[in-house]
């Protein structure tokens, strides 16, 4: 069984910064893709950023130039550095990992979510 635990959310003023972290634990062979998603009240969950095991990154247009995703393969962790935060970034942020393990061999795992609130 694989579990993801997130940390780092909170309340920040517009223009400020936050760093989110997510750690995976359990029987893990590799994690091809790590990512962050977010869900604002009344809206669907949306992609924020992803990073592959080789370091290739992908960002939503709304966060390009402000957010940076990174990973530590040795620690099975993914990070999201969020700068120049805007009130519209307010949401619950979830990490997601595609994990190669034993059973099931390949599966998606989600963190519990961490609240990010940006005040104007």
The whole-angstrom Rg is: 14 Å
**Tally of DSSP β-strands:** 11
Termini separation: 41 Å
Percent of residues in helices: under 10%
Biggest sheet character: 7 strands, mixed
- Binned strand content: over 45%
- The gross shape turns out to be elongated
Q: Supply the helix-strand structural class.
A: mainly beta
> How confident overall, as mean pLDDT?
96
Please write the string of helix (H) and strand (E) elements. Answer: EEEEEEEEEEE
What are the segments in which pLDDT stays under 50 over at least 5 consecutive residues? none
Number of helices: 0
Short précis:
The chain is an all-beta fold and 120 residues long. The protein has strands spanning 2-7, 10-13, 18-26, 30-39, 46-52, 57-59, 67-72, 77-82, 91-100, 106-110, 114-119.
Structure in words:
Helices cover 0% and strands 60% of the residues. Strands 2, 4, 5, 6, 9, 10 and 11 form a seven-stranded mixed beta sheet that branches. Strands 1-3-8-7 form a four-stranded antiparallel beta sheet, with no helix packed on it. It has 120 residues and is mainly beta. It is elongated. The mean pLDDT is 96. A hairpin with a 6-residue loop joins strand 4 and strand 5. It has no helices and eleven strands. The protein starts with a strand and ends with a strand.
Key features of this structure:
mainly beta, single chain, 120 residues, 7-stranded mixed beta sheet, 4-stranded antiparallel beta sheet
